[in-house]
Amino acid sequence: MIISFDIKKGHELRVAEQLDFICFVSESINHVKVNASKLEIDMDKWPDQEMLQKIEQALRVAETFKLVPSRIIRTTSKRKQSTGKMIPVSTHGGLMLKDDETKYKQALDGYLQKMFSSNGACIREYPTFLHEDIMNKCQYNHNFPQHTMRVAAIPHNNEIMGNYRADIVADKDTASYFRMQPFYLRPCICYHAYEEFSNYDSQSLIKKITAGGKCFRNELVGKRGETRLLEFHMREFVFVGTKTEVLNIRTEMMDLIWDLFLKLGLTGSIVSANDPFFTQNENNKSVYQRAAELKYELIVSGKGDEDGYSIASFNYCGSAVCDAFGLNANDVQHHSGCVAIGIDRWIQALRSTHGPDVYNWPVEFRDILEEERR
């Protein structure tokens, strides 16, 4: 059922920027959108008076959020009409790739790994789990609790395991048997790299690392789909240095990725952006990040009138993350940056733009595929 709320005149764009914040009021909210001067909420059932008040309160808070428009850094001259369907999402929250689709993903990831390694990055492969000590150090769980996923397991106890098995047979709820473990499913890969950076002194510090693999984020149920997954593949390039060095590397990588984007026949823009910080009563972090252009995103055009979606981000972290991981002890001042590429989203963009047949894709991608086969 759809419930509507009036938005104060002139505040529609502010509310549109904070729709996730309103969704977090209740898990019974399926979808939220701004329609003219109305906030429309799709809910499982009609809310009680207390829930209506909470939604109203969240809306009023959203109306006060500061708004910094995105700045377009680069854009394609025109938008290409999509000709194909995306790969559907499996019931398990990720993409199920079939036959040659797996090769497309491997080829693109391999190409990016070579691109980053040719620019001085050491190649790494890290565990899927992230220890809670590292999670607490980087504070991802504090800044983005809405996306955090933690590992749980059944204790190694005969009685508990026996009761658990019996309840499975009896078709009873077994959630209470699980205990939290000191591990998270990693939401990104860069924190593993920062942990490795912290193991070196300033004289022997490795300054560039690339790694790829599965990442996990607890996306809102109503927003999950072909380009917003619980499980996805990411390729990252993490680098440290002086402020000037880091900003120059970020620009160089943005040039390379934009060039690849154009060669593969995709359309869209690079824009200033911000991360979805969970800030209940203020949005200073998001405003500062976008206003200072600490984050750029490569947005590929959506199908028809649909909004586009991010397939890459180019981040300048200042000295904050290096400080958190102890890289700036003894009067050393390191800054850092990260380039993150959503491999699944690139494959979805290519498929929806050019169709399912790779022989209709640009020859540049087929060259990448052929190079990977050698």
Structure description:
The mean pLDDT is 89. The strands form 3 sheets. This protein has an 8-stranded mixed sheet with strand order 4-11-12-13-14-10-9-5, sandwiched between helices. Strands 1-3-2 form a 3-stranded antiparallel sheet. It has a 3-stranded antiparallel sheet with strand order 6-8-7. By secondary structure, it is of the alpha+beta class. Helix 4 packs across helix 13. It contains 13 helices and 14 strands. The longest helix is centred in the C-terminal third of the chain and has 21 residues, at 243-263. It folds into 3 domains: 2-63, Alpha-Beta Plaits (2-Layer Sandwich); 72-149 and 187-373, BirA Bifunctional Protein, domain 2, CATH 3.30.930; 157-182, no CATH class.
Helix fraction bin: 25-40%
Proportion of residues in extended strands = 15-25%
Q: What Rg is obtained from the alpha carbons, in whole angstroms? A: 22 Å
Low-pLDDT sequence parts = none
- Order of SSEs: EHHEEHEHEEHHEHEHEEHEHEEHEHH
Placed side by side, the strands forming the largest sheet appear as 4-11-12-13-14-10-9-5
CATH top-level class of the largest domain: Alpha Beta
- By CATH, the architecture of the largest domain is named 2-Layer Sandwich
Count of DSSP helices?
13
Tally the beta strands: 14
Q: What is the total number of structural domains?
A: 3
Shape descriptor: globular
Let me know the average pLDDT: 89
Structural class: alpha+beta
* Corresponding CATH superfamily of the largest domain: Bira Bifunctional Protein, Domain 2
Largest sheet: 8 strands, mixed
CATH topology of the largest domain: BirA Bifunctional Protein, domain 2
The CA-CA distance between the termini, in Å, is 55 Å
